[in-house]
Amino acid sequence: MSQHNLPELKTCYVDDLKIPDFDERKTVQVAALLVKKFNNKLDRDKLLKMIYLIDRKSLEDRGYPITFDRPYNMKFGPILSHTYRLMKEGNGKYWNKVFGVPDTKRLIKLQDVKVGIGALSEADMEYIDKVIEVVGHLSFQEISQYTHKLAEYEDTGDTSRPIEWNNWLRAVGWDDDEILDIREELDSRASFEKMVGDAWE
User: Fold this and answer.
1) Cα distance between the two ends of the chain
2) Where along the chain do its domains lie?
3) Which residues, 6+ apart, have CB-to-CB distance to 119 below 8 Å?
4) How far apart are CA 63 and CA 133, in angstroms?
5) What is the mean pLDDT of each successive set of 10 residues along the chain, which is 201 residues long?
6) Sign for the pseudo-dihedral over CA of 165, 54, 32, 48
7) Is-above-0.85 flag for pTM?
C-alpha cells in the first residue's frame, strides 16, 4: 500500500445501530500523540492502522471506540473510514491545522502548532501506549499482516466493505447479551448528542 495512492472506499456504511458521530478532534489528538512519539514523523499508512488498533482496544475493554469512526475491511486489513479520508483528502476541520500534506515518502508530520490533549482521557492515552508497545516497532506491511489475523477481518479483494458493529463487538470478545446492553448505551449517547446538537441550531 505504501507504494500507491490510497484507493477509494467504494461501499457506503450501513448499520441499524445508532452511534455517536465521528469525533475528528479526538482523532487528530490521537494521531498527533502517535506522531510525536515517533519523532514528529510517521508513515501515513502505519498511522492509519495504529489508530484502528487503538479504537479496537478501547472497544475490547470498554465497549466503545475513542474516535467513533466507522470500521471497514479493505485488502490491506481493517481501517477507519473517516480517518482514511482525512489522510487521503486532507480536508478536515482540525486535521489541516495540525498536519501538513504527506511528503514524497508518505510521511505525516506535525506542523508548527500546539496540539492539546484535552479531549482524551487517561485511559485513551493508555491505549495509545499499549498499541505502540505491541506494533510500534513493526512496518506497515507487518502491521497489515497482523490485522489480517484479527477475527473481524475478511478478504474484500480490491473493494471495501463495512464491518458491522455486532461483528466488531463479537470479534473483540463481547457476547450477545453484552452487545445488547452496549447497543442500548450507544443509542442513548447518540440520541443525546443529536438532541444537544438540535438545540444549538
Assistant:
1) 42
2) 24-200
3) 23, 25, 26, 29
4) 22
5) 51 62 95 94 94 98 96 95 88 85 77 87 97 97 97 93 94 95 91 68 47
6) negative
7) yes
